[in-house]
Specification:
30% of the residues lie in helices and 29% in strands. The chain folds into four domains: 47 residues; 83 residues, Elongation Factor Tu (Ef-tu), domain 3 (Beta Barrel), CATH 2.40.30; 82 residues; 99 residues. It is built from eight helices and 15 strands. The longest helix has 25 residues.
């Protein structure tokens, strides 16, 4: 890619401009000619830098933010917006019996947990409702516990926010969007081929990736394994939603969904393969295991996310002990680690995504021993 600012810095431009002035005139720093030309050269140098930025934003590989949105739109692809978390709420009256509450009533989490508001949107059964968070993103997935009414409702004994029905997701990141566009450009999607299924499912809100396994249970069968935008396992309700859009079970193979006639599609999730990490650690002064534990888990999860992305494109993925060690050592306060084991072994872990079990690596336990 052409670099406009290369060779066009302030000193480069000033030297070229002063070179056009006859040597018989005073053009030393501080002279009238120098002082008249220098500000214009500085502005030109800034203009060349701006040209570099502008050029980067015109290419799919380097554009970001709104400029990437515009490039994606050229290919008929839009960024997936943040979605709202749907949670299950359980409501009991003052006698401890399940009670009816109004659809549309609003409830809040305690201020200490962020004070996020939820609205009752659907009844599952007496005393059990779906509540939709009013704030988009993953924040609505986090709290479990008591709810406070934002309006007067008689005889409420307890209101509890429990399981996630459909998890909220953040807006699609630049790299995910870029990858979807590149896949569309590089692959040839025809109705019912692997590229077509993959592109269609990944375009749905809240879906991060999809592994397509054709002829998994005989001719005409297709298995779609999906995860969320954050590469987590989606809720059952989301799986059902995707299933009904692709190939409704009541009319499977009859072409009532995205799948063409004759394709019996099963939408499901990968089988979680738990990754347990244990190691000894030495910390800097003033750092504690409790203080660094969450940052270490986040660092390991960041590495595992690269493995999880590869899970959808490679025939084999490997979880390297050495990469996990590097991730842990990058955490502030960690001096050194030793005796690191994965799932009670000192070997790297190899997984074949297309094996019958469709094992999908996810971090479970991190055991940290001092010393």
């Amino acid at each position: 890619m052409f670099n406009f600012s290369e060779g066009n810095g302030f000193k480069d431009i000033l030297q070229r401009v002063l070179g056009t002035v006859p040597d018989t005139l005073d053009k030393r720093m501080g002279s009238i000619i120098y002082d008249a030309l220098a500000p214009a050269c500085a502005e030109l140098a800034q203009a060349y830098i701006a040209l570099d930025v502008y050029a980067d934003q015109t290419y799919l590989l380097t554009a970001v933010g709104e400029n990437l949105d515009n490039k994606a739109y050229d290919y008929g692809i839009e960024r997936n917006k943040a979605t709202y978390s749907k949670r299950i709420g359980v409501f009991l009256d003052s006698q401890g019996n399940s009670m009816e509450i109004p659809i549309g009533s609003r409830w809040s989490t305690p201020v200490a947990s962020g004070g996020h508001n939820y609205q009752v949107t659907e009844q599952l059964e007496t005393g059990k409702y779906i509540l939709t968070c009013e704030t988009a993103g993953t924040v609505g997935n986090e709290y479990y516990g008591d709810l406070l009414p934002l309006e007067s409702i008689n005889n409420v004994g307890s209101a509890t926010l429990t399981d996630i029905y459909i998890g909220g997701e953040e807006a699609e990141g630049d790299e995910n969007l870029r990858q979807r566009v590149l896949e569309k450009v590089k692959t040839h999607a025809f109705e019912g081929n692997i590229a077509d299924y993959k592109a269609y499912v990944k375009s749905m809100e809240g879906i991060g990736d999809c592994l397509v396994i054709p002829v998994w249970n005989g001719g005409g069968t297709v298995k779609l394994l999906i995860v969320t935008s954050s590469y987590q396992i989606p809720a059952e309700a989301k799986v059902e939603e995707v299933q009904n859009l692709v190939d409704p079970p009541v009319n499977s193979g009859k072409g009532y969904g995205k799948a063409p006639i004759g394709h019996e599609v099963t939408v499901t999730v990968p089988e979680v393969f738990n990754i347990n990490v244990e190691f000894n650690i030495i910390l800097e002064d003033n750092f504690t295991v409790a203080g660094v534990r969450e940052n270490i888990k986040n660092a390991i999860n960041d590495y595992l996310k690269t493995v999880q992305r590869s899970w959808f494109t490679e025939d084999e993925v490997i979880i390297y002990i050495s990469r996990i060690m590097v991730a842990i050592l990058s955490v502030n306060g960690v001096v050194s680690i030793n005796n690191l084991i994965l799932n009670r072994d000192v070997k790297d872990i190899t997984i074949n995504p297309k094996d019958e079990d469709n094992l999908y690596p996810m971090l479970k336990d991190v055991i940290i021993n001092e010393g």
